[in-house]
Amino acid sequence: MEKVFEALASTPRRKILAYLSETELSAGDIASRFDMTKPSLSKHLKILEGAGLVKAEKRGQFVFYSLQRESLANTLTGFVQAVCPVSKALKKESRALASKRSADSSGT
Q1: Is 33 exposed, middle or buried (0-12, 13-18, 19+ CB in 10 A)?
Q2: CA 75 to chain CA mean position, Å
Q3: Which of 35, 52, 66, 73 is the most exposed place for a label (fewest CB within 10 A)?
Q4: Is the pLDDT of residue 104 over 60?
Q5: How many Cα atoms within 13 Å fall on the side-chain side of residue 42?
Q6: Which is it for strands 54-59 and 25-26: parallel, antiparallel or unpaired?
Q7: CA-CA distance, 51 to 44, in Å (whole number)?
Q8: Closest CA to 4 of 64, 80, 65
Q9: 35-75-89-57 Cα dihedral, nearest 10 degrees
Q10: pLDDT at residue 72, as a whole number
């Protein structure tokens, strides 16, 4: 449980979780939303993965991240995001990305 709280203590990591709330994203997609170095972002993603909050799946040369939905910790994260004003806009963007991906995959 300590790893979960350590992971949630960081604003960038909470933002990453908000972005992943409705869709999976590649490491590059996540990086494009932050003004930080790739090694710094990689460290944040490893901490989230180590806490069991996200899972990584390598597909070809890309790594895709998604929430560990079955994790009890994500229930806590969902609660925190619901009461955190900054998360609302990020979750809206995540829903829009999911809709766009759904439309793109059904249109081809």
Answers
A1: middle
A2: 14
A3: 35
A4: yes
A5: 4
A6: unpaired
A7: 11
A8: 80
A9: 50
A10: 54
